[in-house]
Amino acid sequence: MKAFLVSLIALVVISVGANQLLVRVGPSSADAGTSVQNVRLSD
Amino acid sequence: MLRLMTLFALLWTLAAPVAAQDVIDTPRASTGGAQTLEDILRRQEGQVIDDGFRSDVTGNPDLAAPMTEQLGTLGGASDPDLWRAFRYSTADITTQNRGPASTTLVQDGGMWWLLFRKGPLLQMTAYLLGGTLLALALFYLIRGRIRIDGQKTGRTITRFKAFERFGHWLLASSFIILGLTGLTSLLGRKVLIPVFGHDAFSVLATGSKWVHNNVSWAFIVALVIIFVVWVAHNIPDRTDLNWLAKAGGLFGGSHPPAKKFNAGQKLIFWAVIILGGSISVTGVSLLFPFEFNMFGHTFSTLNSWGVPGWIGMPDLPYPLQPQEEMLYAQLWHAIVSLVLMSIIIAHIYLGSVGMEGAFDAMGKGEVEEQWAREHHSIWAEEVLKSEPSKSEAS
User: Fold this and answer.
1) I need a surface site. Which of B91, B205, B223, B390 has the fewest CB within 10 A?
2) Which value does ipTM take for this structure?
3) What's the predicted TM-score (pTM) here?
4) Residues 1-40 of A with CB under 8 A from B
């Protein structure tokens, strides 16, 4: 069952890694579509 | 006098159809062109109505009063015209928000989805998963555990290498986690909140969503791994027809010859790849809302081919608003997942309690030589020719 245990570790690593990567890259649709500025003078 | 009456009767007879024609041409004359009670009732019954009588009435710039006159700045559109344009997404809207759905101010595509999700989808879940478990229980009672018929040799041969088992278990563990967390989201309001209450479910749902969103990447990685390592062994061939004709020997007692994977396993492999792939694609579209709009384009293509008409259906809705794309993605994601769950439950049964010696293939990677000869005779012969079997004790 070594393969099973290794797969569980890989599952945790991939899940947490993907989450951290996405958080750092920041592809949030809400962030991408919202300006942090108070006034937008152009597109 | 008689002639006059005859003439009147003739004119009345001729005029009647014309009057009827007027009613047909303007069926909403009684409401001045607005929707009627019949329209409202039909809509409440979920029937499709032709909305053209109001969706097209969004003002006409050519009729705009000159700027020099009163109300000239309205540009030929009244307030109701403007709201109808919002309602049917034909208004030219500019917003500071650059999100793809931000210009949709009014959309009514969610009600049928909500009703379907609260009712038929939950029934489908219960029937599909409950029915599968019931069918397997009945199968177990009728057929019992599938035993190794011949004398066990005490020797084993390698069925799956470590990397193959790693890919399988990564896929299996991620799918089980995704299935449980997905069911938590799907059934939470109906099943879990009445049991645990809102506060406890809130914590559970938040954690469940985080796990579901992030474990999905492990599932996608595993899907790619098992496709790469097993696709060559899962190409259909002539032995599959014989295997299927004998139903894999489930009831006859005979063991039709099979290669590394028999026809049943090939069907499961392709179901996992195709359904799992579809679940992954819709899952990614749900993870990144409004970024991937697949259903509108698909519906448009199917309509152009006339596919809905083949089964007597009206054309599929097109174009879809961004929110509707997400609704269809959610439903597709849930329904395809439920179908795959049923298949996988049967797979888990046959790979564990349903068949003697089957679990060893994924547990240890080694299978009893006699088991291999019975269930995968062609593959067993090939392996035994190239490498000798090992003693079980070794």
Assistant:
1) B390
2) 0.79
3) 0.81
4) 1-4, 6-8, 10-11, 14-16, 18-19, 27, 29-30, 32-35, 40
